[in-house]
Amino acid sequence: MTDHADFDENDGSAAAERKMRFLYALRSRGVTDTRVLSAMERIDRGLFVRGLFAERAYEDMPLPIACGQTISQPSIVGIMTQALDVQPRDKVLEVGTGSGYQAAILSQLARRVYTVDRHRRLVREADEIFRALDLTNITAITVDGSFGLPDQAPFDRIIVTAAAEDPPGPLLAQLKTGGIMVVPVGQSDTVQSLIKVTRTETGFDYDELRPVRFVPLVEGLGTE
Question: What subcellular compartments does it reside in (predicted)?
Answer without folding.
Answer: Cytoplasm
